Amino acid sequence: MRVLVASDFEPGSHRAHAINVVKTAGGFARLGHDVTVLYRGSVASDVTDLVRAYGEPQLKWTCVPVDAAESDAARERSFARATAEIARGFDFVYARHFFAALAASGFGTETALETHAYVGDPNPLLQRAIEATRSDLTRIVTISEVLRAHYIERGGDPDRIVVVPDGVDFARFRRPDEVGKCPFSRRFDWHVLYAGHLYDYKGIPTVLSAATMLPKVGFEIVGGSPEDVDRVRKAARTMDNVTVHGLVPHDRVPQWLWHADTLLLPPTAAEPSSQWTSPVKLGEYLASTNPIVASSIPGLRAWVAADVVTWFRPDDPHDLAKAIVRALGEDAEWGSERRRRATALAESFDYRHRARSMLAGRDLLHASSCQPCSPISGTKTTLPSASLR
Hints:
Layout: E1 2-6, H1 16-30, E2 34-41, H2 47-54, E3 60-65, H3 72-87, E4 92-95, H4 98-106, E5 110-114, H5 124-132, E6 139-142, H6 145-153, E7 161-163, H7 170-173, E8 190-195, H8 204-213, E9 217-222, H9 226-235, E10 242-246, H10 253-259, E11 262-265, H11 280-288, E12 292-295, H12 298-301, E13 310-312, H13 317-328, H14 332-348, H15 351-360, H16 367-370
Parallel strand pairs: 1-2, 1-4, 2-3, 4-5, 5-6, 6-7, 8-9, 8-11, 9-10, 11-12, 12-13
Helix pairs in contact: 1-15, 3-4, 4-5, 8-13, 11-14
């Protein structure tokens, strides 16, 4: 089957939005389909550069040129027109773009629109797409039952709105037998790592506060735009155990995860998205099999069994610090079982399954994986040299 993937992103972007789109395209390709990615650029990018950026050599790429004179609204419409015209030669369109999805489906091409638009989003295009599920839009794909229920309340067809979590390139992030050289300086006996954007709502202030309570644990912070990296570096300038590394190319992120002792996923509960988030890095963290310390928010708990990660109270740095100590002190017996469960859950999030679910229109909740697991007996050890103060 010929599949067109359409999203208005800049080539080489390492934002979660772009990564998820391209990796989902790779999932279609690994199912055996002929896949073309339609993107927006000032000039057509060298395919070699795109393969290097995303690690998806089997994809074809088509650029819709940017007209610098166009307004944002005109650009959106021109991208939609290009999508609709090109889509006539394809069997299926997966779009992360409202205009493009509506245009392609309007011409009769089977089309799935992915949107994570929040509860109450007033965007009229969202409402048009919701209503189009009762006519020509094949389906809407979203990442949470909370969002699905909201779209249905706004008039969407329940049979055409499906829940599919964000994915992971399992083969790329799965921990190998040999992890290679550590990309950061091992100045401490233990190192915890956060990889992702550095917005406050991602929990960065909580991480920095927790770091002051664990002076003998190294905190490695990876990712962020230049302005956010500068801001966080200034906030951490007096903390000897915090290193803000800046942006790392996506294909190099796995090595950073493999060498950490614990991975941090600390989003705030204050953002509405805490009710429905499904972050890309959740799957990447799980695939690495390293211990994960995560905010106990509904959006994360919906996808992860109760004891596959160590939970802490959101926005509570003291509780985060205690959770880090518990995770670092994981005993061998429980650690082996946790890694087995993390691997199975990460594999269920692989982009092949994500793409298959979109084509079939099925929900990908993996109920058996997301039910709380039976606890394993065993006492976790504390770390005498990483005590709280």
